[in-house]
Amino acid sequence: MRNEKSLKIKSSRSELCSRFGRICFSVLFAVFAIMASAQDKSVSGTVIDETGEPVIGATVMVKGTKNGTATDIDGKYALTTPPSATLVFSYVGYTTQEIPVGGRNVIDVTLKESRELLDEVVVVGYGTVRRRDLTGAVSSMKNSDVVVAPTNNVMEALQGKIAGMDITKSSGETGSDVNILLRGSRSIYGSNEPLFIIDGIPGIYSQVNPSDIESIDVLKDASSTAIYGSAGANGVVIITTKRGEEGKAIVNFDAYYGFSGDVNYKHGMLGDEWLAYHREAYKYINGDYPTDNATLMGNPEYTSALEEGKWIDWVDLASGRRATTQKYALSVSGGTQKARIFASTSYSKEEGLLPNDELDRYTLRLNADMEINKYATIGFTSNLTYSDHDRGVKNTFTKSLTAFPLGDAFDEDGNLNHRFIDNQDSPLGDFIENQFANNTKSTYINSIGYLDITPFKGFKFRSQISAILSNSRLGQYWGAQATANQPSYAKSPFAQKTHNNNWAYTWENILSYNADIKDHSFGAQFITSYNKNTNEQTIAGSGGFDVDTWQFHRLLSGSGSQYTYSDYSRTQKMSYAFRVNYNYKGRYLLTFSNRWDGVSWFSEGSKWDSFPAGAVAWRLSDEEFMESTRNWLSNAKLRVSYGITGNSGGT
Fold this sequence. Notes:
Shape: globular
CATH superfamily of the domain at 121-247: TonB-dependent receptor, plug domain
Distance between the termini: 73 Å
Strand content: 35-45%
Largest sheet: 13 strands, antiparallel
CATH architecture of the domain at 121-247: Beta Complex
């Protein structure tokens, strides 16, 4: 039909133009535009690697556009594109390929491992190494892999991207962290979370803005994590943030707004279903069905609400809003050969399904490096995070599911009724004004200063000191109409405030030496590390308040008994470590390390322990007898490793 229409228009073109002039040209232009757009075609195919295995999650983009897709579990993809377009195939660790579509409907691609990747520098414990010289199991991710997912949680953005790392989110609450297991559980009673190293110092990953991250390196096996001794049993995640580079100032602005789908939660019975259920229950108890609604309900108010059709879907009211997230980030990078800086700021807001579940977070970062002379460089890294977090209560959904479904949920002014019908209290009491509060305000500051001295080639000494200061205030209030479970010792209404203060500092010194003598390469590192950590906690509570608007701000106004609690702890840790590396012609690799840790929270006689590790590797693909395979095999390495790590319950 489209071709016939086109012919009719062409046949009468001169007549139309003579009568209608510009109108004819406009009509023809629109028809030709529609015909051109209709020429878009479907292109599909399979993406595999050099071994023939499907590449899962490879990116397939139409060059110059935002039109794209990702390969499925079988490496297959499908998209619609103009015949003149060029498809761009990419995946982490592989060379990007660009292929014109032309007249093809099927385009299969074999991605080849990037040779540049083998010379890429990978961050390992207390140093770096070329990927080709690795003897341990290490996975690396770049900034582009982190920011591709619109989330404020950097580890959530890495779900499904690191082999052996299981990342799951157990709660839909705003600001909730993820559960992380690296190569399975290792402790029955202790934590199984990996150690997080932020810019060389143990830190908290959730306090880092994902947009500020340059790379993430994950140490998996014992030979690579043993350098962290009693803290490395669960694996190590090393996060390196961006630093300024020489050149003109570069300004980046990133913003997004997203929302989750509608909540898929079970609803309670309503209408005829609810009536049928209760009629059967009545018959089971009384031996026969009720004669009328009044007999069934047994309460005049219930009967009246039933006959007036005042049904309430409490689950729908509890989850009536859509979860959203938004973020705005601004960064500036630049400098000269002598001085370079990277500065950033961001604001993010998350809104959960519950009206009282919200999180506002503000971050500031300033990383600076300054060259004193050709032998010495100083610098610092600073990160400030402030958050304001209101938390709802998970049992709101379960209480809504079982609540009585008849009555008036709201009054004439649109406010929630606590007693919405005789003898029935609303399961949404936490949403009534001034009846419930669970608010946390927290400040986190992490600053690191360093001095690098390089007196001659191959020799480097770094001394770095880190200070962490965190403070949080948790305010909670349970009014008489709140549905959230309050503490067993509380007298309703009850209010409670919890203050947590933590400060810690870490001082590390790293002495490194590297040398190349013909076909031989040597490397050695000597490390000392000292950590001191102090925690203080104070809890105060009171009950029997006459005024709900005070909430947790005036504890002495409560008429009930006062509740107080305080705690204090201080821990220290001292460590010594060394590591040596050797390789011959880049083919035969050897690494050996040992660390001695002393922790204050262990019993006398058991405070110190050592954690040795070793690994050997053979780059088989570099041997002469493998030359015939180099057109399809670029990197084959055999390695054996052994290491001892520990879980001391702290960093």
